[in-house]
Amino acid sequence: MPDGEPNSQSTFEKIFKAYFGLLERPVKFVRENVVEPARLNKENHYYHRRYRRIPGVDECEIGDEICFYEVNKQFKRDKMVDGEVLNILRQRKVECGVYYGEDKKKYCEKEFKDYEEAAANFFQKYGDLGAGGNVIDAYMKQKHRLIWERRHGPVGSGMKATE
Question: What residue spans define the domains of the chain?
Protein backbone atom coordinates (compact mmCIF):
# COMPACT_ATOMS: atom_id res chain seq x y z
CA MET A 1 0.00 0.00 0.00
CA PRO A 2 1.59 3.31 -1.08
CA ASP A 3 2.08 6.06 1.46
CA GLY A 4 -0.73 8.56 1.88
CA GLU A 5 -3.52 6.31 0.53
CA PRO A 6 -6.37 5.35 2.84
CA ASN A 7 -6.96 1.68 3.65
CA SER A 8 -8.47 0.74 0.32
CA GLN A 9 -9.04 -2.79 -0.83
CA SER A 10 -9.49 -4.07 -4.33
CA THR A 11 -12.75 -5.70 -5.34
CA PHE A 12 -11.03 -9.07 -5.40
CA GLU A 13 -9.84 -8.67 -1.78
CA LYS A 14 -13.36 -7.71 -0.65
CA ILE A 15 -14.90 -10.78 -2.35
CA PHE A 16 -12.15 -13.00 -0.96
CA LYS A 17 -12.70 -11.78 2.63
CA ALA A 18 -16.48 -12.04 2.34
CA TYR A 19 -16.29 -15.61 1.00
CA PHE A 20 -13.95 -16.84 3.72
CA GLY A 21 -15.93 -14.89 6.33
CA LEU A 22 -18.94 -17.03 5.39
CA LEU A 23 -16.89 -20.13 6.14
CA GLU A 24 -15.14 -18.83 9.22
CA ARG A 25 -17.96 -17.19 11.17
CA PRO A 26 -20.05 -20.34 11.89
CA VAL A 27 -16.97 -22.31 12.90
CA LYS A 28 -15.77 -19.52 15.16
CA PHE A 29 -19.26 -19.15 16.70
CA VAL A 30 -19.53 -22.88 17.49
CA ARG A 31 -16.03 -22.98 18.97
CA GLU A 32 -16.49 -19.94 21.19
CA ASN A 33 -20.06 -20.67 22.33
CA VAL A 34 -20.20 -24.48 22.44
CA VAL A 35 -16.79 -26.17 22.50
CA GLU A 36 -14.81 -23.95 24.87
CA PRO A 37 -17.55 -23.65 27.55
CA ALA A 38 -18.00 -27.44 27.43
CA ARG A 39 -14.42 -28.13 28.41
CA LEU A 40 -14.24 -29.16 32.04
CA ASN A 41 -10.68 -28.14 32.75
CA LYS A 42 -9.51 -25.27 30.58
CA GLU A 43 -6.09 -24.69 32.12
CA ASN A 44 -4.73 -28.26 32.03
CA HIS A 45 -4.39 -29.79 28.60
CA TYR A 46 -2.67 -33.15 28.61
CA TYR A 47 -1.90 -34.84 25.36
CA HIS A 48 -1.50 -38.29 26.84
CA ARG A 49 -3.97 -40.46 28.67
CA ARG A 50 -3.76 -40.44 32.46
CA TYR A 51 -4.71 -43.72 34.07
CA ARG A 52 -5.79 -43.93 37.67
CA ARG A 53 -3.38 -45.80 39.92
CA ILE A 54 -4.80 -49.01 41.30
CA PRO A 55 -3.77 -51.07 44.34
CA GLY A 56 -0.97 -53.61 43.99
CA VAL A 57 -1.30 -57.30 43.25
CA ASP A 58 -0.93 -58.09 46.95
CA GLU A 59 -4.31 -56.42 47.60
CA CYS A 60 -6.22 -58.48 45.00
CA GLU A 61 -8.47 -61.26 46.26
CA ILE A 62 -7.56 -64.82 45.30
CA GLY A 63 -9.31 -65.70 42.05
CA ASP A 64 -10.16 -62.08 41.19
CA GLU A 65 -9.20 -62.14 37.51
CA ILE A 66 -10.37 -58.58 36.84
CA CYS A 67 -8.15 -57.17 39.55
CA PHE A 68 -5.21 -59.24 38.30
CA TYR A 69 -5.83 -58.05 34.72
CA GLU A 70 -5.89 -54.37 35.76
CA VAL A 71 -2.77 -54.72 37.91
CA ASN A 72 -0.98 -56.55 35.11
CA LYS A 73 -1.89 -53.83 32.58
CA GLN A 74 -0.62 -51.17 34.98
CA PHE A 75 2.59 -53.17 35.43
CA LYS A 76 3.10 -53.38 31.65
CA ARG A 77 2.49 -49.62 31.27
CA ASP A 78 4.93 -48.88 34.09
CA LYS A 79 7.52 -51.15 32.45
CA MET A 80 7.12 -49.32 29.13
CA VAL A 81 7.46 -45.93 30.82
CA ASP A 82 10.54 -47.05 32.77
CA GLY A 83 12.02 -48.42 29.55
CA GLU A 84 11.48 -45.11 27.77
CA VAL A 85 13.06 -43.20 30.69
CA LEU A 86 16.03 -45.56 30.43
CA ASN A 87 16.24 -44.94 26.67
CA ILE A 88 16.22 -41.17 27.22
CA LEU A 89 18.99 -41.41 29.82
CA ARG A 90 20.99 -43.67 27.52
CA GLN A 91 20.59 -41.20 24.66
CA ARG A 92 21.71 -38.31 26.90
CA LYS A 93 24.77 -40.30 27.93
CA VAL A 94 25.67 -41.09 24.32
CA GLU A 95 25.10 -37.52 23.13
CA CYS A 96 27.21 -36.11 25.94
CA GLY A 97 29.98 -38.60 25.15
CA VAL A 98 29.92 -37.69 21.47
CA TYR A 99 29.86 -33.95 22.21
CA TYR A 100 32.79 -33.96 24.65
CA GLY A 101 34.78 -36.79 23.04
CA GLU A 102 37.94 -37.42 25.03
CA ASP A 103 36.77 -35.26 27.97
CA LYS A 104 33.56 -37.21 28.51
CA LYS A 105 34.74 -38.63 31.84
CA LYS A 106 35.21 -35.10 33.12
CA TYR A 107 31.99 -33.50 31.82
CA CYS A 108 29.53 -36.41 31.53
CA GLU A 109 29.94 -37.95 34.96
CA LYS A 110 26.37 -37.08 36.02
CA GLU A 111 24.85 -38.58 32.84
CA PHE A 112 26.86 -41.79 33.24
CA LYS A 113 25.92 -42.08 36.92
CA ASP A 114 22.22 -41.41 36.27
CA TYR A 115 22.09 -43.98 33.49
CA GLU A 116 23.91 -46.66 35.50
CA GLU A 117 21.63 -46.13 38.50
CA ALA A 118 18.47 -46.24 36.35
CA ALA A 119 19.70 -49.35 34.50
CA ALA A 120 20.43 -51.11 37.80
CA ASN A 121 16.99 -50.20 39.15
CA PHE A 122 15.30 -51.32 35.91
CA PHE A 123 17.10 -54.67 36.03
CA GLN A 124 16.34 -55.09 39.71
CA LYS A 125 12.62 -54.68 39.02
CA TYR A 126 12.15 -56.19 35.55
CA GLY A 127 15.31 -58.20 34.85
CA ASP A 128 15.13 -62.01 34.48
CA LEU A 129 11.35 -61.88 33.96
CA GLY A 130 11.54 -62.53 30.26
CA ALA A 131 9.17 -61.29 27.58
CA GLY A 132 6.13 -62.99 29.13
CA GLY A 133 6.81 -61.84 32.68
CA ASN A 134 3.79 -60.52 34.52
CA VAL A 135 3.06 -58.79 37.78
CA ILE A 136 2.93 -62.06 39.75
CA ASP A 137 6.44 -62.98 38.57
CA ALA A 138 7.74 -59.52 39.52
CA TYR A 139 6.03 -59.71 42.91
CA MET A 140 7.58 -63.13 43.61
CA LYS A 141 10.98 -61.85 42.48
CA GLN A 142 10.70 -58.94 44.90
CA LYS A 143 9.61 -61.28 47.70
CA HIS A 144 12.54 -63.64 47.11
CA ARG A 145 14.99 -60.72 46.99
CA LEU A 146 13.68 -59.37 50.31
CA ILE A 147 13.99 -62.81 51.92
CA TRP A 148 17.54 -63.12 50.58
CA GLU A 149 18.47 -59.70 51.96
CA ARG A 150 17.02 -60.56 55.36
CA ARG A 151 19.04 -63.77 55.53
CA HIS A 152 22.28 -62.81 53.75
CA GLY A 153 22.51 -59.03 53.47
CA PRO A 154 22.16 -56.87 50.37
CA VAL A 155 22.32 -58.68 47.04
CA GLY A 156 25.83 -58.45 45.60
CA SER A 157 27.59 -58.02 48.94
CA GLY A 158 28.30 -61.71 49.35
CA MET A 159 26.75 -64.11 51.83
CA LYS A 160 27.05 -63.65 55.57
CA ALA A 161 29.27 -66.09 57.33
CA THR A 162 27.34 -68.96 58.91
CA GLU A 163 27.13 -68.71 62.64
Answer: 10-40, 62-152
